[in-house]
Structure formats: structure tokens, C-alpha cells
Amino acid sequence: MSDKATLEIDGKKYEFPLIVGTEKEVAIDISSLRSTTDSVITLDPGYKNTGSCQSAITFLDGEQGILRYRGYSIEELAEKADFLEVAFLLIFGELPTKEQLEKFHADIKAQSVVDEDIRKIVDAFPKSAHPMGVIASLTSALTAFNPSSVNVDSEEDMYKAIVKILGKFPVLVAWTFRKKNGLPLDYGDKNLGYVENILKMMFKQPNEEYKMNPIVLNALDKLLILHADHEQNCSTSTVRIAGSSHVGLFASLSTGISALWGPLHGGANQAVLEMLEGINADGGDTDKYMAKAKDREDPFRLMGFGHRVYKNFDPRAKIIKKAADEVLNDLGVEDKILEIAKALEQEALKDPYFVDRKLYPNVDFYSGIIYRAMGIPTDMFTVMFALGRLPGWIAQWREMRLNKEPIGRPRQIYIGETLRSFKSIDKR
Ligand code: SDX
Questions:
Q1: Which residue among 40, 64, 137, 153 is the one 20 to 30 A from 168 at the CA level?
Q2: What's the pLDDT tens digit per position in 94-105?
Q3: What is d(CA 176, CA 93) in angstroms, rounded to the nearest whole number?
């Protein structure tokens, strides 16, 4: 294949280099487009055909349904690794040795207390506040309590900021959950594993010992791994573009949390459960809702279906669907909602509307069913997504800063009024 692309505009030819990635993906490097043509730019709403960066963190092939973190398949990692190992892998590029993992965890535990004044911010929120709004604010507030910005050129500074957020974020998640449920804002136990400690911080009742359920622990660890990174999705791109202005790590992460909240993105896991509960409350008539999803006049969409990149099964959805069966079975939970989800999936997989548009279940379609079985309320589902995605956001932010990428500033094509003169108000 040639190493150049040729563009012809008004009979004039322009050549641009082709960039080929390690997985043979090809991009046209148009960084000189505007300067070599008469200020011509490209236009690609939603960036469906536009790459924002070259990254070595996550590879996904939407046509084949492949997802790998630093070259390791998501199937292997979900099966054999634990969440903290995967966090280390995403951020530093290699699976940790036993010693590295122990030191990483110890350094995180040393940072797993938050300033008592943050309780005052938590207390200021009404119980009715959506947890995603609370956790986005609390994450941004960390900047106030940790003002020193990250010197990304210093490995030590970068490492300190990483273990700080990995230590404090789970506390903020637990406090967000507990505040809403009228429970005291507590800490977990430094002698526990990273995910064990998250469960204890969230669910420990003030008047009894917390009993760890290995089924719930294993399910949460796997869910967090499956959500850990997903290349340049909406919230990760938000974290990268915010960070490209050289604003701090915590403030950049807070922007990603807000972007993730949207029902078309991470907020879909909450929207899926609400949709399934709505269908169940309406008698479980899946045919009626399939018809609504296909009706262009009807705003109803089958939440948890479709994906910007996956035009095949989302590999994470396959793993989560299997885990949902196992967790509900092991917990002895009969959930009509799971049956409705499976019925919708079966119907969609053979319906031309969905088949022609390559709409398959995505990561959000089954995850809420497991969270619910674990006792996590629906409006906390996207917070759990953020907890999983945190290492991915950190890894992507760090890569963007280490690569000294320029500030993100897209162009536009202006289609508004051309020059016109001001009219005084009596003449309008
Ligand atoms: C996540 O990017 C990532 O990697 C995200 C994520 C991650 O890990 O970070 O994977 C997590 O956000 C998963 C996606 C969760 N969102 C949902 O489940 C919401 C429901 N899905 C859709 O809104 C939609 O599929 C998107 C937003 C996910 C993708 O939208 P696109 O790529 O912009 O596609 P589109 O909206 O242009 O849809 C193409 C066609 C349209 O029909 P036509 O105009 O061709 O007639 O498919 C239809 C759409 O109407 N369509 C759906 C549908 N999704 C797309 N029709 C019914 N139900 C749906 N869910």
C-alpha cells in the first residue's frame, strides 16, 4: 500500500502521509491540510471518522468485537487478573510484579483518607441529588484540598497524583452512596483488598460486622475490569481535551465524570434498568417496545443497544451477560428483569432493523442487572461505571501529557450571517 494519500481540490493535487498502527489501522495525517491548501479543513460531526491521537493503551476492533488493554484480551484479564492489576497495567503499560502490585496498593492505601472538610461538601447536597452530580463535584473539590498541580515531567509527582486519586475516589463514591442512604460517612479497612474495601466502605452497617460475599466481590472486580478503559470514547476524549489545557488531573477527571453521566454514554446503564422496569410494569410486552424502538417518530430507543464502534457484539456484554446469570443464580435471585432483557436481545438479534444497523447489546445492557442484584441502587450504576473507568481516564490523561500533545481546539465551518451593520433599536 502507498504511504501517501492524494487529495484533489479544484484540479490541484495534495499529498498527505498515511500513518499505520500496530494493528494495521490506517489514518491520513492531515495536520498540514489547512496550511497546504487554501485553508481547507475537514468536517466530521461526532468524529465518526476522525482520530484524535495515537495511543498505546487500548485497542478495539468494532467489526470483530475485539477489546485489549495494552495487548491483553479483555477475556483473559476479566478471567485471570484483578482490578488493581489492570489499573496498574493501563496506567504504566505492563502487568505489575508481585512487589510492584504490593507497593502500588500500599501507596494507594496511604492516600485513602480524605480531608474531613469534604464531609461538609457532602452534607451540603440534598439526598435527592443525583450521585453523578455529587461525585463530579467532590472530584473537582479534591483540587481545592490538593492544590499542587501535577508536574507530569516528574515521574514521582505523576505517581503521587495517581495513587492519591485511586485512594480517595473510592471513599468519595462510598460517601456519595452512604449520604443518600442516611448512613454515617465511614472508612473501610486498610487490611482489605482494593475492591473488598470498596464494598465494605459502601455497605458496612454501623451496628454490625460487615460480611464479605465472595460472589459479589468477584462480580464487582470483574465489572470494574470490564469498564476500565475503552480508547477515545466520549468521556475519555473529554478528559484528554480538558487536560490538554494543562488543567490538573482531578479537574480533568471531573469533566469526564460529567460526560459519562449522559444517557447515550455511561448513563445508559441506569437508563437500561429504568427501561426494563418500565417494560415490566407495562406487562412485559417486549414486542410493543421493539416496535417503539424502530419507529423513527418515537423517541424511544432500546437503551443498552448499539455502539459507535462495535458493529458486532460488545465483548464486554458477552462476559457481563454470563456473569449476570452466575451472580443471580449464586445469590438465588429470581429477576424478571433479566428475562425481559434476554427476550429483547433474542428478538433484536433477528430483527432486520437491528441487524441492518448492526445494533448489538453493549456494555450497559446487562451491567445494571448485576449491580441491582448486589444491592446497588439504579442511580448509582453510572458512579460504578466511573469507578471502573478511573484508571483508564488516568492512563489516557497521562499519555496525552507525556506525549506533550497540543491543546485541543477543533475548527468549524461558519454558516451564520455574513457581515451586516448595527441597527439602532428604533429601526429594528
Ligand atoms: C457506552 O464509545 C464508547 O466506547 C462508549 C462505551 C465506553 O465503554 O466508553 O462503550 C460506553 O457509552 C456504550 C453505549 C451506551 N449507550 C446506549 O446504550 C444508548 C442507546 N444507544 C444509542 O443511543 C446509540 O447506539 C449510540 C449513542 C450508542 C451510538 O450512536 P451513533 O453511533 O451515533 O449511531 P446513530 O445514533 O447514528 O444510530 C445509527 C442508526 C440510527 O437509525 P437510522 O437513522 O439509520 O434510521 O441506528 C439507530 C439510529 O436511530 N439506533 C438505534 C439505537 N442505536 C442506534 N435505534 C434504536 N435503539 C437504539 N439503541
A1: 153
A2: 999 999 999 999
A3: 31
